[in-house]
Amino acid sequence: xxxxGFGAFHRAHQAVCSDRLASEQxxxxxxxxxxxxxxELIQALKQQDCCYSVxxxxxxxMSLRVIGVVKEALHGKSxxxxxxxxxxxxxxxxIVSMTVTEKGYCYEPSSGRLDLHHPAIVHDIANPEAPxxxxxxxxxxxxxxxxxxxxPFSVMSCDxxxxxxxxxxxxxxxxxxxxxxxxxGWITENVTFPSTxxxxxxxxxxxxxxxxxxxxxxxxxxxxxxxxxxxxxVIEDNFVSGRPEWEKAGAELVSDVLPFEEMKLRMLNGxxxxxxxxxxxxxxxxxxxxxxxxxxxxxxRQLMMEEQAPTLHANVDLAAYADSLIARYENLAIKHxxxxxxxxxxxxxxxxxxxxxxxxxxxxxxxxxxALGVAGWMRYVGGVDEQxxxxxxxxxxxxxxxxxxxxxxxxxxxVAALLSxxxxxxxxxxxxxxxxxxxxxxxxxxxxxxxxxxxxxxxAE
Length: 461
Ligand code: NAI
Ligand code: CS2
Known about the structure:
alpha/beta; Rossmann fold; N-(1-d-carboxylethyl)-l-norvaline Dehydrogenase, domain 2; 2 domains; five-stranded parallel beta sheet; three-stranded mixed beta sheet; 22 helices; 52% helix; binds 1,4-dihydronicotinamide adenine dinucleotide; binds D-mannonic acid
């Protein structure tokens, strides 16, 4: 397997399952890890024979595992993109997986289609043999295999998007169509793009967690990662050239992942983003700090059960699921920063909140807390917190957001300007007066009363 995006999540999720399979079941599947942008981790990984540690943390317990399933590592910049494409074209490669964050797909979040104006895509259309984007690199790998008469691979996204397989297919074939329509047809017939639902809370590493691990390990491991004990992986069983028996390592192989994806994205990620924006504004640094505020806890559960659960089709006890999520958020050993989850909101809002809001608009349901979430995001991207301190906005649409914020006065006009971003809100939502009125109402409340008081008031409304 080649995995693109050797970040915290992959190290603590897919690599752990594949490692269990190798060490406990004798599987010979292994990884070539690729990072396209930052090279430090890849360099450190190579210096330690491609091994690293994963620490599962809960309360004051820590359980360590050394991962040995990584066999090679490449950095797109220092090893060169051609070395990455060559890795994809190795005869024994059967799966290309990735965790590159939502923005790595160069797609339009509201439609799930390739963004043909994305600078990396414009570059790759002009330079298909020296691509820079994820879709361009995968496509170049497919082309090289096809030219050499090698079997195709399966392309498996492990990022938090609904129908992540469909999105990946869209961006790869969307780019292929621009270059050669025969190629696009060949991909449709020969390459599979299984969807997955992935779940494990893996915060970005901090100096504090590194220090805790160093003490336990007795040495420094710059590649190590800390996570919660919980792990879930639901995979669409649609692989064109074989796959590891991940079901023997706890994964669920199913024919349709969408109900699981929607459940996780709306209940978990939807409540996460709510807590991230409203928590950050209230001065709560971590998700566990939000859980210590009774109103935030109640709001998170209410958002899950009253506003997300009715939109779902999963055959799962959703009340028990909501309780288990709250318990996971309370894990004090996991320092998951609200500021981290708040990143890349333009890429996250559609699947976490907006699809549910559309469902309520159609079915006459209540979406009060979801509207408060949208208002909280708007307040956050305004770039100044409740103490008057600047917020560092990290988002691929940061410039567009800053421009709209700079051009509009606080209040109704600001809400309207942000709602008119079609890549996020589509064509429809800004034209729904009831929705616009609710978001504006909560936005004004946030300005006047602040986040803590607004969350409390929203519960009572
Ligand atoms: P991270 O910041 O540790 O790693 C991000 C990875 O994405 C890095 O390897 C980076 O090189 C790559 N990347 C970023 N932008 C890219 C681009 N434009 N093109 C190509 N590669 C790019 O983040 P982490 O924690 O590994 O999360 C990555 C993704 O995994 C998330 O966005 C989410 O979709 C998914 N995920 C994360 C979970 C978590 O708790 N951390 C849990 C479930 C899913
Ligand atoms: C979080 C997710 O960063 C975020 O946006 O909501 O990474 C979350 O921790 C995972 O999806 C949990 O599986």
